[in-house]
Structures are given as structure tokens and as C-alpha cells.
Amino acid sequence: MTLSEEATARNDSSDKNADVRILLIGEAGVGKTSLIMSLLEDEFCANVPPRIDNIMIPADITPEGVVTSIHDYCASEQTEEELKTEIEFANVVCLVYAVDDHQSIEKATKIWLPLIKQIKGDKSGSCPIIFVGNKSDEAGPSKHIEKVLPIMNEYDEIETCVECSAKTMKNISEIFYYAQKAVIYPTHQLYISEDRELTKKCKKALIRIFKLCDFDNDGLLNDIELNQFQLFVFGVPLTASAVSVSFLCH
Question: Which of 45, 124, 191, 245, CA to CA, is 20 to 30 A from 118?
């Protein structure tokens, strides 16, 4: 059974029942709809419509067990107001470009990224962006990553970059997995990328956890305390090799 048989098409743009709302945007012809169709059908579809209706994927068939809605965008079929609404309600944005088309990368930085930041405003930092380089099968040996890295360094919202191909199915499921993960396990609450350090709240939480685990209050976690922490968090005891490593660290 393909994902398309499990998923349902929705015309409701709010999708209030979705835990994760994924929006695909980018220039025309970069393959946004093809990526969604390849995910749903588990194979490349040569003929795709300009845009497909919103897709709702049930929690029981997603890796993280969350209800996920996927939204496609097409400039020829949607208005600017509809685009703004889609961006406003998106939990995560997949910004798609073609690795063999430098112009699509350039427009991602000059048009799409500033637009997301403008619409999201103060919330832009809490809406992760997955940079998606499609059509890797057509690019041949490419140095496009060298062009993308400076962009990722400039925009902290970009969670990761995925090079993929709707035609060869390369990294198709990974795109949507990373998108889900970016929403469910956000890093901006834990780490300040521009300062390269943990947030104050994260530091406070880690210190609190350490103190709770330090039963003898000696300022160190011995093997027994580490093992108790391991059991509480992961439900399994430390292995002998892990205990040996902790001994060496002491």
C-alpha cells in the first residue's frame, strides 16, 4: 500500500487537526509537486498537475507518530494573499530549488527567504526552514553546496539542506522526516546559533537535571548515578563499555 492510499486530500487550508504543517515553496519548475507525488506514490510520476490539494497523513504511518499535513504552492493557481496565509500557518517551510539552476538558488535568497522572514516577523526564528535541492540527477558533478553553505550561515532559520531527486527517489522521505523533526524537536529553544552557545533556560534545565541525579551531592556523577539516569531516560542500563568510558573520563 502506497502512502497516497493512506493519505487524504484536504481543501481546508487551516488543517487544524495536523500536528505538523509542512509547506513547499519555491520557483516554478523546481519540482515541488513532483517531490510530494514521489513521496505519496513511492515512485516517480512523469506527469504531475501544477499543484495538488493539501495532503493529510495519519499519525500511525509517520515515523514520529504525528498527524502531518503537506501543502503545495503554485504561483499560477494561487494568489499572493493565499501564499502569505500558507506561510503564516506553516510550522515548517521546505524551500525548494533546482541544483542545476543557479537562478532558483539566487531567488531563494533574494525573494523567498526575505518573504518568509517578513511574514513570520518575530516568529521567523521559530519556523524552521528545510533547504531542498531537487533535480540532483540532472546536475552531474555539482559544487552547489559551496553556494548553499554561506546562505545557511546567514539564515539561522535554515535547519538543514537536503539534496534530492524526485526522479530517482533520492532522499525523498528524508525531506519530510527532517521537516517533521524540526518541528517536534526544535533547536532554537536550546541553542543560540549566532552565539554558538546554549540558551539560559537550557543551561538552567541541564544544571537542574544534574543536581537531581547527583544523589550524594558531591558535584560528580558516579557510575551508579549515571546508570540511574540512563535507566530513567532510555529504559536500559549502561553497557560495560560505557561504564569503562565514564571511568576514564573521571
Answer: 191
DSSP 3-state assignment of 101? coil
For 116, counting Cβ atoms within 10 Å of its Cβ (0-12 exposed, 13-18 middle, 19+ buried), the class is buried
Whether residue 97 sits in one domain with residue 25: yes
What CATH number does the domain containing 199 carry? 1.10.238.10
Candidates 157, 19, 165, 105; CA nearest to 173 is: 165
Q: Are residues 57 and 155 in the same domain?
A: yes
- pLDDT digit string, tens, across residues 172-198: 999 999 999 999 988 777 877 667 788
Domain that holds residue 202: 190-249
Burial environment of residue 108 by CB neighbours within 10 A (0 to 12, 13 to 18, 19 or more): buried
Using alpha carbons, list the distances in angstroms from residue 154 to 21, 149, 162: 25, 9, 17
> How many residues appear in the chain?
250
| Rounded Cα distance, 186 and 42, in Å | 28
